[in-house]
Amino acid sequence: MEEQIEGSNKKVMVIIDESEYSYHAFMWVLDHLRGFITDSPLVIFAALPTPNCNFAYGAQLGTAALYCPVSPNLIGAMQETSKKVLLGILEKAVNICASRGVKAEIIAEAGEPYELISSAVQKNKINLLVFINEFFLDLCKSHEWYVRTPFKMRYCINMNMPSREIMTYN
């Protein structure tokens, strides 16, 4: 695989979160894609999800009430805690990269992960996207998404597949 796209300044982005699986995907990139991340920094992306404040409560006659009984202060505290955890994970990832002599660039944004990743790939002109969640598989397959970009992301690795499926796009 490295022979196929090694060379002229290809950018690799790995999506991480607090799961063990994304840690393994990150380590896989460091172990197996060394040729790609020597010329340009490894882009490490993490999306800070918005807290879910909808709760369902049982009501009379089998109906359920959905509402948000949580105060804005509590939601803010939840977001702040999530942000601290995410920044700690990113700091650990940068330290691992530094210990291996790999330059790392981090991107942490709050919002809808699908849209944030789409935007980050466009802005940073990513050539290889490594992810663990099958939700993002549509991101790689979306024809409309490629039409909107001024460049083409040519490779996408789904770490959730046993064969480390590599999709090539022209």
Automatic annotation (TrEMBL):
InterPro entries: Rossmann-like_a/b/a_fold. PANTHER family: ADENINE NUCLEOTIDE ALPHA HYDROLASES-LIKE SUPERFAMILY PROTEIN. This is UspA domain-containing protein.
